[in-house]
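Lab notebook, design round three. We kept the backbone fixed and only want residue identities now. Task for the bench partner: fill in a sequence for the structure below.
Input structure tokens:
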């Protein structure tokens, strides 16, 4: 491929842009993962992660994409044939469900329209009916990356408590951790699943489970076969800062830098920055006369915005235009919304001018691709950004 001058705009909702500080941190000789320096690094990382997940409990790190951490959450806590309650919020929730089914779990799926998050009232009603406590886990995708809908996880926890049900609560935060407010311990989450390549600003290749005491107790009774994903082997080695098998050493150098960057900015400031960019983006979409996929304002995602194209217009053709003309990658529509939506990622290492470059690229792309719209979306975002804190 011929060199294009200037930076590529990688505005898909993950993998996200990897900041130079992290690239430089990764670009170091790989060390002996059984040597003394590694133990110090491991202990520092495992302690630091607690701050990011907002927990005092253990967080384990896998050299795997997010899908691995989905599997780890299920195989460490459940037994073959166990019933789990899942919600069809979009493509990622559907993939997690398929994974659970392939593992031999019995999935009860609450249907959804891909434009709303998990309804806490539905959670409460379903669990209240389950008098025999057949449901062993409730699995929720916090930020549904295919639709730009963020479920209200704290409200789901409250719904479970109101129903007085002992189920585990597992949450996928792969595209929300370090972008949208999330509290593993305060919200009573049993297993939090996360990945490296979105809010954590790292390349793909690491994933995480944050584990509650209740989940740890469940893992002692769980009968799902597991080996690579086994928490116990991981936690035993982690106690001294090591891993039971070769860790992704260079990505861990990057993780150390990523955590330093997030804590320098402050997590509250990181969340506020994401909220602000999301609001500016939605104002642009409304000014273009296009529709945001998410229908519930209190569920708007601050990580990404999925935008619906008018009927008869192919979102993938539009995306091909922005890539060809402006070297701008936008997210594609996945699953049921394939070709119907495109997604603007505004998470990770991102600032006002990167957002304006992105929105200008979208607006010029809409015109070039012949998608009916009103001009002025980029201006609407400027009008917001120039005054909003
Ligand atoms: C990206 C993403 C995944 C998939 O993770 P992989 O790293 O591709 O395995 C799962 N869930 C959500 C919500 C995601 O955004």
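Proposed sequence:
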């Amino acid at each position: 491929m011929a060199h294009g001058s200037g930076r590529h705009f990688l505005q898909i909702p993950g993998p996200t842009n990897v900041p130079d500080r992290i690239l430089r941190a990764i670009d170091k000789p790989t060390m002996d993962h059984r040597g003394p320096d590694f133990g110090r690094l491991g202990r520092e990382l495992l302690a630091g992660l607690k701050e990011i997940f907002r927990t005092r409990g253990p967080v384990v790190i896998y050299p795997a994409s997010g899908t691995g951490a989905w599997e780890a959450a299920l195989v460490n806590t459940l037994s073959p044939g166990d019933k789990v309650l899942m919600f069809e919020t979009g493509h990622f929730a559907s993939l997690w469900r398929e994974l659970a089914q392939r593992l031999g779990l019995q999935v009860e799926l609450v249907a959804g329209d891909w434009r709303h998050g998990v309804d806490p009232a539905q959670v409460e009603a379903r669990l209240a009916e389950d008098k025999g406590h057949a449901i062993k886990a409730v699995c929720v995708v916090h930020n549904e990356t295919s639709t730009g809908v963020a479920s209200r996880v704290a409200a789901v926890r409250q719904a479970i408590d109101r129903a007085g049900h002992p189920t585990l609560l597992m949450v996928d935060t792969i595209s929300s951790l370090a972008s949208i407010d999330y509290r593993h311990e305060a919200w009573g989450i049993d297993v939090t699943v996360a990945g490296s390549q979105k809010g954590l600003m790292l390349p793909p290749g690491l994933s995480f489970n944050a584990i509650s005491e209740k989940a740890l107790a469940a893992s002692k009774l769980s009968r799902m076969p597991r080996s690579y994903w086994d928490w116990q082997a991981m936690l035993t080695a982690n106690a001294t800062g090591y891993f039971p098998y070769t860790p992704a050493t260079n990505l861990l150098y990057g993780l150390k830098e990523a955590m330093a960057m997030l804590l320098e900015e402050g997590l509250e400031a990181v969340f506020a920055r994401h909220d602000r960019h999301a609001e500016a983006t939605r104002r642009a979409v409304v000014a273009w006369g296009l529709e945001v996929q998410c229908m519930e304002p209190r569920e708007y995602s601050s990580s990404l915005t999925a935008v619906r194209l008018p009927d008869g217009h192919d979102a993938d053709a539009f995306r091909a235009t922005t890539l060809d003309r402006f070297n701008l990658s936008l997210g594609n529509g996945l699953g049921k919304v394939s070709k119907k939506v495109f997604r603007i990622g505004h998470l990770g290492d991102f600032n006002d001018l990167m957002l304006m470059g992105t929105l200008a690229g979208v607006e010029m792309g809409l015109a070039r691709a012949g998608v009916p719209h009103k001009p002025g979306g980029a201006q609407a975002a400027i009008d917001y950004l120039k005054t909003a804190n």
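Keep this in mind before ordering anything: The chain has two domains: 9-16+267-387, 20-263.
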